[in-house]
Amino acid sequence: MKILTVANEKGGVGKTLLSVQFAFYCAFKFGLKVAVIDLDQQANASNSIRSNQNCVVSDTASSCFMLEPADLLAENLQKIEEAVKQSNIVCFPADDALSEIEKKGDEFHALVTYNFSKNIDLLSPYFDLVIIDTNPNPDVRSNLGIAVATHLVSPLILNKEPIDGIARLLNRISVLAQNNPDMVLGKGFLGMLPNMLSSTNFQCQNAKELFDSADELIIKWQQLDIELDTSKLSFDKDKASVALDEDGNAKVKVLNRYACIKLHSGIAEAQAKGLPIWEMPNQNAAWSEMKRCFFTMLCQINPEKDDLSTQEQKEVFEKASKLYGKSAKAIVKNFWMTDVAASLPGMNLSEIQRLREMRSSAPISTVL
C-alpha cells in the first residue's frame, strides 16, 4: 500500500482539488482501491466525495486514526471490506474533533502520533493507495501526514505567499525525512504542482522566477513524439507506419514539460458536484492538463495491484511489442496518459480499446 500526502502550509492552493480529483483518476481510470483520509476540519474533500454516488463515506472519521488505539479501530474497520466491494473509493471524513487535537499538549500529541502511525497500517489489506488531504497549518496533523507518507506532493499557486511557503515546507520535509529517508526529491517527494495558473503579468513573472530558481522542484510530464515513416503504407495490418532504428525499435523522442493546472471555471463546479473533471461539459482543456499531471504522479508512486488483464488484452500488448520493439512500453505508456488513439499507429480500433481497458486491469508497472 502506498500513501500519498498532499501538503502545503498555505490554504487555497488546491490541496483538496488535487486529493479528490487524483482519487477519482486512480480509482475510476486505473481500477485502484483508494482511501481518502481528510485531515482538514473544513471537510471540503469529505463533502465533495460524499456528493459522488459511486463513492463510499465511512462511518469512521479521520480523527479516529489519531484518537483510537489500534485494537479498537480495527473493530470499527470491519465494515471496510464490504465498502471496498461497493466502490473503489472510501473516504474517512473530517469531523470537529480534528480542530481540538492541536489544542492539547505534547504528551497528548505523542499519543496521537503513535496511534496514527499504527492505525494507518490497518488499511493495507483493503487499499492500494491512501491519499491524505492535510490542513494548511503546520500542526501535528499535517506533520503526521508527511511522516507516514511514502510519497508527497505540494500544489501551489503562483502568488508571493505560497511561493514564500515553499522553503518552510522543504525545511519540514527535511526534518521529518530523518525518520522517513525516502522522502527526498525524485523518490518519495514528487515535487511541486503549480495550480490555478492564469496569464496575468504577475503570475507569469512569478512563474519565471520559480522555474529559474527551483526548476528541479517542479513536477514534469513527458511528451512522447513518435517518428513516422511516410514511405510505408498503412494498409498492411501487421505493419506500423513508424520509423524503426536498425534494431527494429520505433524511433521516439522524449521531451520534458512542466506539469501545471490552469485556472478553469469548471473545476470548482466539479468539486462541488463531486464529479471527475472528465465528466464535466466543456472541460476538455482542464482534463488534458490534469491527466498528464496525474499520470506522471501515478507512475512515480507506482502502486502495487493484482494483474487482472484478460488474455485478449495481453495479446494486443504483445502485438505492440512486435510493432514497436523496445519502444513498446513507452508508446503504450504515452497512450495510457493521453488516451489519443493516433498515438498507437498500426493498431485498429478494437485493439486500441483493449489497451484502454487494460489500463484499469493491469498494474501501472506494466508500462514502466
Describe this structure in words.
It is a single chain. By secondary structure, this protein is an alpha/beta fold. Helices cover 45% and strands 14% of the residues. The protein is built from 15 helices and ten strands. The protein has helices at 15-30, 44-50, 64-67, 70-76, 80-86, 97-101, 106-119, 140-148, 160-176, 201-213, 265-273, 284-301, 311-324, 328-338, 349-361, and strands at 2-6, 34-38, 56-57, 89-92, 129-133, 151-156, 189-197, 220-226, 252-258, 261-262. The strands form two sheets. It has an eight-stranded parallel sheet, with helices on both faces. The protein has a two-stranded antiparallel sheet with strand order 8-9. Helix 1 (15-30) runs parallel beside helix 2, helix 13 (311-324) crosses helix 14 and helix 13 packs across helix 15 (349-361). The longest helix has 18 residues, at 284-301. It starts with a strand and ends in a 7-residue tail after the last helix.
Give a short synopsis of this structure.
By secondary structure, the protein is α/β, with parallel strands linked by helices.
